[in-house]
Write a structure and sequence with these properties.
The protein is mostly helical. It starts with a helix and ends in a 24-residue tail after the last helix. About 30% of the residues are buried.
Length: about 140
């Protein structure tokens, strides 16, 4: 799955009604991924980790707890590609997610739940990029 396919999955699963905590989005993504091949689940996890990793930067999360920062980054991803790319270009757009503590924690568990549904087993997931807060050392280096 490339980046375009990842964002297409997000867009196609985004509910029409407001979904402030991305619960409906996460459920739709999980159902869709669980209905497909395991390789798609693994590729989705890689793309999700990469998207979250790219937002793991000092200018976004310098004074947030690791959990708050992770869930706010997930909310940016849940908001879709347009919002995500806008935030990458303009860190000021992240402010509303910090102030309102917008969370989308459920998005983080989508690949794990889809994996469990397909295999019947828990996934000891390891992706190329860590989505955990403060793992992008280059994003936290003082300029």
């Amino acid at each position: 799955m490339n980046e375009d396919a990842f964002w297409q999955f997000i867009g196609e699963c985004t509910p029409c009604l407001p979904d402030p905590d991305a619960e409906q989005l996460a459920a739709a993504l999980t159902n869709r991924l669980a209905a497909g091949p395991l390789a798609t689940v693994i590729e989705f996890a890689e793309q999700l980790s990469w998207a979250l990793y790219r937002l793991d930067r000092k200018e976004y999360g310098h004074d947030l707890s690791s959990d708050s920062f992770l869930c706010a980054r997930a909310a940016i991803v849940a908001a879709g590609r347009e919002t995500y790319e806008a935030v990458l270009c303009d860190p000021q757009l992240f402010v509303s997610y910090r102030v309102d503590l917008t969370w989308a924690e459920s998005l983080l568990y989508v690949p794990d739940e889809a994996y469990r549904r397909i295999t019947g087993e828990e996934w000891n997931r390891s992706t190329r990029y860590s989505y955990e807060s403060y793992s992008n050392t280059a994003g936290w280096t003082s300029a």
